[in-house]
Amino acid sequence: MKWNITRPADPQPEEMRAVYGDVLTAIAAEDERIVVLDADLMKANGTLGFKKAYPERTFDVGVAEANMVGVAAGLSAVGLIPFPATFTCFAARRTFDQFFISANYARLNVKLTGTDPGVAAAFNGGTHMSFEDIGLMRTIPKIVICEPSDPVSLRKLLPEITFRYGSSYLRLHRKPITRIYDASETFELGRGKVLIDGEDLTIIAAGAILVAEAIKAAEKLDAEGISAAVIDMHTIKPIDEELVVQYARKTGAILTAENHQVRNGLGSAVAEVVTDQIPVPMVRVGILDEFGEVGTQEFLQERFGLTAENLVAQARELMNKKTRVGASPARSHA
Amino acid sequence: MNSSEIRSLQRKAAEIRRLTVEEIAHLGIGHVGGSMSIVEVLVLLYYRHLKIDPRDPALETRDKFVMSKGHAGPALYAVLADKGFFPTAMLQTLNQGGTNLPSHCDMNRTPGIDMTTGSLGQGLSAAVGIALGHRLRKLPGRVFALIGDGDTNEGQTWEAAMSASMFGLGNLVAFTDYNKMQIDGPIDVIMKTDQLVDRWTSFGWFAQQVPGHDFAALDEALQKALAEEKRPSMIIADTIKGKDLPGIEGDYNNHNMPISAEQAEQLVASLRELEEASA
């Protein structure tokens, strides 16, 4: 198996929300335009440190997410850079019209953060489980959607999001996550990261849960003699079309992996590129046509097939599909 | 205000109504009723109180105005054109393809518009954000907002109301265009929103209710609101939908209605008479 990145010298887990709060606090020390908003979830979202450092730049609006996003739009209208945060389910489902009109349609600069994506909502259960937030957000014109896979990429991508004008949606896993990257790694919004190079198929994954599972799957596949490339597609919109095309051409088969519905999430975004530019066999792993439910994250990963084992099984299917298709048109371009 | 100042504002109100009717009549359809009911509030703000410079719409230190009932854009466009933010001839482009004067207010298209609105309930939240931003950035400008009966139905308006008083936004003054009509009928029949002074007071605002086409009463209420330092203020203006348009005034069907060329001619003549009567 061929790693394409420097592995971290110190792969210890870090709380993603702590990184989020620390990075914003550090940026705020240099830039007085940074303001943080929350809707009664500051502890959960890791912004209490920011509040302590900059109480006058912190606005907790209580349990009123729609107002939070509207107030953020107003703050942005006078030149501030607001970071409103809430759980993904409320960020996307409840504030969609406010975020769509007051922030995005108005071409303002609202940096919305949704935490606890998909099965990470675990014990909060089905009401709090968003399998559709990327789908909703992805239909907003010009928006940037980012889902970092580990503390290092979050630390590097958050400043990029901050200083790139325009509204964005950060899909943030808030619990402890083991580092995938070395601290020296650099990132660019809209440019996916090839973690592992491969020849037979490419796994394109996003987020803290599925990128880790994709790496494990590639290791298992490697033991079976299947060479799988793994890409961390941290920016879901705008998607890195060039990289998708390059790996569709190189490996002739694509498996996507996401902690979200397969409809209109990462898999759909990749499929749009593949269909338009370089049709190759694809399988999308994610939640099928189902609502969320309660349980441990591990139980829910099993329940919805968000595991390395399922990725391996789907990869085998994909290899069969690829063989049936024969010498794919993609290969003939190689 | 002395009586000649009041007469001058009344004349301006008739002129703004005329410009708005001409603007809407050019296309032949538009949001007539709710544009007419807000004219005195707009004229009082833009011709007597707002610190603005039409030559410099982007000036950070100026006052801001959020039209939460974004569909009343046509009346505000007439005011902005008359103030010199853009040529009056542009009013004839209302709602035409490619125009900079869309049915609902758009801060990216129209000079002088401070917030994009149109989805009811969202304007007051934005005004709260702008007022917080002014306070944080120590900008001297005050923030004004205008909401309607439809906004008053929306839950988000009351979320914004809670937060404005919680944050002690003394730099925020809002008006309710209380014309008591909504698209489907009178508010008493569709969704009753009465006792507004009590409602806003109970949400921590300094609330007053005044006749909304009476400049002296509106100005007195506004002076009191401007003196408030720690609380946001709400002025509930009792207004009439379609005000001063014979045959249209008070009819709930006037929310979004066609105006024929012939009808426009009669309305314009009637408004010119009002202008001359105030001269």
Structure description:
The complex is a heterodimer of chains A (334) and B (279). Chain A is 43% helix and 20% strand. Chain A has 334 residues and is an alpha/beta fold. Chain A has a seven-stranded mixed beta sheet, sandwiched between helices. Chain A has a six-stranded mixed beta sheet with strand order 1-10-12-11-14-15, sandwiched between helices. In chain A, helix 10 crosses helix 11 (266-277). Chain A is globular and about 60 Å long. The two termini of chain A are 22 Å apart. The model of chain A is unreliable at 330-334 (pLDDT under 50). Chain B has 279 residues and is α/β, with parallel strands linked by helices. Helices cover 43% and strands 13% of the residues of chain B. In chain B, the strands form three sheets. In chain B, strands 2-3-4-8-7 form a five-stranded parallel beta sheet, sandwiched between helices. In chain B, strands 1-9 form a two-stranded antiparallel sheet. Chain B is globular, with a radius of gyration of 17 Å.
Brief overview:
The complex is a heterodimer of chains A (334) and B (279). By secondary structure, chain A is of the alpha/beta class.
Kindly list the characteristics that best describe this protein.
heterodimer, A: 334 residues, alpha/beta, Rossmann fold, seven-stranded mixed beta sheet, six-stranded mixed beta sheet, globular, B: 279 residues, five-stranded parallel beta sheet, two-stranded antiparallel ribbon, 9 strands, 13% strand
Chart the SSEs and their pairings.
The complex is a heterodimer of chains A (about 325) and B (about 280).
Chain A: E1 2-3, E2 13-15, H1 16-30, E3 34-38, H2 42-45, H3 48-53, E4 58-60, H4 65-77, E5 81-87, H5 88-94, H6 96-105, E6 111-115, H7 133-138, E7 144-146, H8 151-163, E8 168-172, E9 176-178, E10 193-197, E11 201-205, H9 207-223, E12 228-232, E13 235-237, H10 241-251, E14 254-261, H11 266-277, E15 282-287, H12 297-304, H13 308-325, H14 329-333
Parallel strand pairs in A: 3-4, 3-5, 5-6, 6-8, 7-8, 11-12, 11-14, 14-15
Antiparallel strand pairs in A: 1-10, 2-9, 7-13, 10-12
Helix pairs in contact in A: 1-8, 4-6, 9-13, 10-11
Chain B: H1 3-27, E1 29-30, H2 33-36, H3 39-49, E2 64-67, H4 73-83, H5 123-136, E3 143-148, H6 149-153, H7 155-166, E4 172-178, E5 181-182, E6 185-186, H8 196-202, E7 206-211, H9 215-227, E8 233-238, E9 257-258, H10 261-277
Parallel strand pairs in B: 2-3, 3-4, 4-8, 7-8
Antiparallel strand pairs in B: 1-9, 5-6
Helix pairs in contact in B: 1-3, 1-4, 1-10, 3-4, 5-7
